[in-house]
Design brief:
Blueprint: E1 2-6, E2 9-14, E3 19-22, H1 26-39, E4 48-52, H2 62-65, E5 79-83, H3 88-93, H4 103-122, H5 128-156
Antiparallel strand pairs: 1-2, 2-3, 4-5
Helix pairs in contact: 4-5
Length: 163
């Protein structure tokens, strides 16, 4: 798999046929996230991509729907600048993993959201407020998890991909 950035939007190729694939966010979502991160004083630097902590392909997840529009996929709270694989040395210097756009990451996040949605529903606590708070808890946990991956990479002396 190869990562490349075209017009500031993350794309990559997959399979033996090397088909070009674009993250399901689309260019407008990346521009909005990039802008919101800059407004939050966390600008995306050259060699970085804006990373949605909760991936765009999960925008129609029941937990997000339960917020009644309160959770903004492109808000700064759902984003993080991440170095590309070509800049893994800079990622290592920042104690960060590099952006690998792995389907395993999206599957992991989906499993967290599925569990939380089921928990809220089973306990009768599902509301727009509790759904939003649960998503924010997931986002905070993902940030901690990403930090930990970066630290373990530093201990090994090389940046690791975010899976």
């Amino acid at each position: 798999m190869y990562n490349l950035e075209v017009a500031q939007d993350h794309t990559f190729v997959v399979g033996d046929g090397q088909w070009v694939v674009h993250n399901s966010c689309g260019p407008n979502a990346y521009r909005k996230l990039r802008s919101n991160l800059a407004n939050d004083e966390r600008p995306v630097q050259p060699g970085q991509n804006p990373h949605h902590l909760i991936p765009c392909q999960l925008a129609s997840h029941d937990l997000i729907k339960a917020t009644n529009g309160a959770f903004d996929m492109n808000a700064a709270y759902n984003g993080r600048p991440m170095w590309t694989k070509d800049n893994s040395d800079l990622a290592l210097g920042d104690l960060e993993p590099y952006h690998a756009n792995s389907p395993r990451y999206a599957d992991y996040v989906k499993s967290l959201m599925d569990s939380e949605y089921q928990r809220l529903g089973a306990t009768g606590q599902l509301s727009p407020t509790t759904a939003f708070n649960s998503l924010m808890s997931i986002v905070n946990g993902l940030n901690t998890w990403i930090d930990t991956i970066g630290w373990f990479g530093a201990l090994q002396g090389q940046a690791c991909p975010l899976y």
